[in-house]
From TrEMBL:
It catalyses: guanosine(37) in tRNA + S-adenosyl-L-methionine = N(1)-methylguanosine(37) in tRNA + S-adenosyl-L-homocysteine + H(+). Its EC number is 2.1.1.228. This is tRNA (guanine-N(1)-)-methyltransferase. One of its GO terms (molecular function) is tRNA (guanine(37)-N1)-methyltransferase activity. Its main location: cytoplasm. It is found in: Cytoplasm.
Amino acid sequence: MPSFDVLTVLPGLFSGFLTEGVIGRAIKSGKVSVKIHNLRDFTTDKHRVVDDVPYGGGPGMVLKPEPIFRAFDHICEERGKKPHVILTEPWGETFTQEKAVELSKKENILIICGRYEGVDERVKAIVDEEISIGNYVLTGGELPGMVIMDAVIRLMPGVLGCRDSLEADSFSDRGLMGYPNYTRPAEYRGMKVPKVLLSGHHKKIELWRKEKSIERTYLKNSELIKKLLKEKRFSKEEERIVREVIRKFSDKVKRTNDGNRSV
């Protein structure tokens, strides 16, 4: 069974995440194992101190190496092998769907949740990769840890009831954004569902969805579309759609880019 171990100073933050929704069901049904470890359990002083002031001075506190290494040794012994170790860091590699797919193939993953001003640099000796979920700073690495687990666990066999949901995910198909979705009623407050989706014509619906996916992606990330086109990553049908989308929206994309450069 695939497993996650999470090392944190705030284990209570994970209680709802691990018991609700898709993740809760995956754990309950035994499709994945998740164990939360309180870093304070691996201290040796009566006050259970996990942080200290940085050498050389400066603001904030730094997570001490000793409890982290003790926890790591304990988890390795418990699992019978060294897990793949992730440290959540604001300056780490930005998390992507591609990375989620890569991690979903790992048997054991340990997530060390950074906090305060980070961890003692010597902890990096046991870390396989540092991951960030975006270019901003949070109060700790617990939320990024949940984001990583959510994205990875849902990719594991049997976790999602409908495998087609994975195939249709935004960004899963060459990085293209998802197409618009609608449900009943067919009209609401004057806003109507596109006629093609009511037609029952599956080929036309498929083409419309491809067009909207490519259109959305081009308007948000025109360079990705150009890159995929250059690499010949589109079918002939898709290439026709791409060139039509570029023809229709190139002026709009240019104005947007020029506006961003002028700021």
